[in-house]
Amino acid sequence: MSLDVAATKPHERLAQALAPEMAAVNAMIRERMASEHAPRIPEVTAHLVEAGGKRLRPMLTLAAAKLCGYTGDYHIHLATTVEFIHTATLLHDDVVDESDQRRGRPTANLLWDNPSSVLVGDYLFSRSFQIMVETGSIRVLGILADASATIAEGEVLQLTVSRDLSTSEDTYLKVVRGKTAALFSAATQVGAVISGADQAVEQALYDYGDALGISFQMVDDLLDYGGTEAIGKNIGDDFRERKLSLPLIKAIAKSDADEMAFWTRTIAKGKQDDGDLEQAIAIMKKHGALEATRDEALAWSAKAKESLQSVPDHEIRTMLSDIADYVVARIN
Amino acid sequence: MSLDVAATKPHERLAQALAPEMAAVNAMIRERMASEHAPRIPEVTAHLVEAGGKRLRPMLTLAAAKLCGYTGDYHIHLATTVEFIHTATLLHDDVVDESDQRRGRPTANLLWDNPSSVLVGDYLFSRSFQIMVETGSIRVLGILADASATIAEGEVLQLTVSRDLSTSEDTYLKVVRGKTAALFSAATQVGAVISGADQAVEQALYDYGDALGISFQMVDDLLDYGGTEAIGKNIGDDFRERKLSLPLIKAIAKSDADEMAFWTRTIAKGKQDDGDLEQAIAIMKKHGALEATRDEALAWSAKAKESLQSVPDHEIRTMLSDIADYVVARIN
């Protein structure tokens, strides 16, 4: 392995290994986001899909299909489908969160309006099912319809428990499976299904996507409070938005009456002053909430790698394993 | 036929003829709108589905299946699916239109919030695909995925041409097919498909739903300007919302320079004063725009009835024909 290759990040190595397939996916995305009658649809979609996301989810589908020795064309369809569902979710999330920035650019709802984000999201979601239908696989349709329902359910759950100090880790995990892990696990699973992989391999790839997605979200939660070491940049968004993220849930579980009064004021009632974020982090550190979140993120990353033991030995398997390491590299 | 029966409306007679099937559909709606993790989902859904809509769309699916002699259970699934897609559309429409009333009750986005309406709509849409998957019919999935894409595309198109005085009747028809007719025609078509009806019958039932939906929307457009006779109650909403409905498009096509200046001020720029609605109606009448809209609505209703000539003779066929008459009865 040359130094150059060693220096690239694992998702970049995966992108290199899947370059022809990803080119086909990008071509299909451009082709299928078109609308004969409503030119706003490709405008809004292009703003988002060309914003330089890593395309991790469609790559997971392509990787799973390649690992399983798939030789047909439908992995391109399914990877496109997964990216369309993801894009539809982002469009609706920005309306739900009233966001004005995503990937460092103004959101579609800011550049156009909320109606465009809602309706273009609906269009992409419908398009994704049209593309799935072309594969002729009812099982694939079932898996992605289930994932879509889990995503929406997780988002509604997040909405209803937001600012609720009694949120349990169990509820947190349901929200995270909806927000993040459901599409990761469906992405890898449909790659196996379309390849006719046996049940053990399909389950292993599902488990990998599920654990990777959960680890991914826990790392995000942790970094938003600066990680376990020094306080980094751009921290505190979750605190200001009063999100019941894992470090907060773990801290609340061990808080005394004074600390609970602090959480009630800052999170439940949303009355935040200067110094409150530092105080929140101090309480989290005192109770080992950041360390415990880190341990869980690492455990899910390890679980993702373990799942890969049941899939065929392949250079792609090594890359997927490296991605599971990479997700937690920032906190390890 | 007793006087009692003669006095009922055709959609009520259809509801009577399909009472056992509609009971099964209502049971499935209640069962499938549940969410183990997010109780807000059934709350929001129940608010809408129990608001006393006529359930015309699911009845069209059941009617088509019955006409075609279907003996299985999947017509219940498909009728539920059609109602879920319709409900999801209504939830998103209320966010798009910033409505606060639907069917005489406060909208879900007013009672809860926009995020709930967006996400519960997404959930119902995903659920509808899950239920379709249970039928095992890829063709049905294709038809309803296509209809969903047409709906979203029509709504985006409506958004982008709103207040645009150059909107053509061709564009209007595309918007109407999206907003209304696509789900009507898919509802009847999937009833035929699940029954294994031959191609001619399937096409006839598709054509019936398409023409019925278009007629339905044109009648709505006309009544919003008071119809061709006296000025009724609750008119002028489309004028105030500056919608390019059919009477307006037809009037614009024949307007002189002074009249165009009036449309530019009131519709394109939205500067409306007392007396403008009366003036708009006067211009429409002068150019025969209301009469011409009425004629088109009647022609689409006739086309719906004509389509039924290719389907089996059956009491349900008579009821569908009567529904096509009933839709235009208010303007005839």
TrEMBL record, chains A, B:
For this UniProt record, the keywords arranged alphabetically read as follows:
Magnesium, Metal-binding, Transferase
Q: What is its EC number?
A: 2.5.1.90
* Protein's UniProt keywords contain NADP: no
Gene Ontology MF term list:
all-trans-octaprenyl-diphosphate synthase activity; metal ion binding
Alphabetized InterPro entries for the sequence: Isoprenoid_synthase_dom_sf, Polyprenyl_synt, Polyprenyl_synt_CS
Annotated Gene3D superfamilies? Farnesyl Diphosphate Synthase
The cofactors required by this protein are: Mg(2+)
Return one Gene Ontology term, BP aspect. isoprenoid biosynthetic process
Q: Which branch of life, at top level? A: Bacteria
The question of whether Metal-binding is a record keyword is answered with yes
Please give the start and end residues of each transmembrane region. Answer: none
Primary enzyme class: transferase
Kindly state which reaction or reactions the protein catalyses.
5 isopentenyl diphosphate + (2E,6E)-farnesyl diphosphate = all-trans-octaprenyl diphosphate + 5 diphosphate
Protein family membership: Belongs to the FPP/GGPP synthase family.
- Described purpose of this protein according to its UniProt entry: Supplies octaprenyl diphosphate, the precursor for the side chain of the isoprenoid quinones ubiquinone and menaquinone.
What this protein is called in its record is Octaprenyl diphosphate synthase
Q: Which organism is it from?
A: Marivivens niveibacter
